[in-house]
Amino acid sequence: EQVRRDTAPQRQRFLAQPALRGRPYESALAHVALGRTLRARGENAEARRAFGRAQELLEALADDFETRGLR
Question: Which parts of the chain sit beneath pLDDT 70?
Fold first, then answer.
């Protein structure tokens, strides 16, 4: 699957949208998309940070589900 290399600035602006606040799953998906774009651009360190943030968000969400007994 090919990722457009010129979309990183647009995706970074998307992450700053107030609509993503309080929506960890959607925010994680946006971070994955940003990471893929950054990786395609050769910005590997930034891509790792975006993927890492996505993982943090998903792990926190999973912990919350487990705490509430919603496996």
Answer: 1-6, 71
pLDDT for position 16: 81
Angle between helices 24-40 and 8-15 (to 10 degrees): 160
- Contact between residue 52 and residue 26 where contact means Cβ atoms under 8 Å apart: no
DSSP code of 50?
A: H
CB atoms within 10 A of CB 17: 12
How many CA atoms are closer than 13 Å to the CA of 30, on its beta-carbon side? 17
Report d(CA 66, CA 63) in Å as an integer.
5
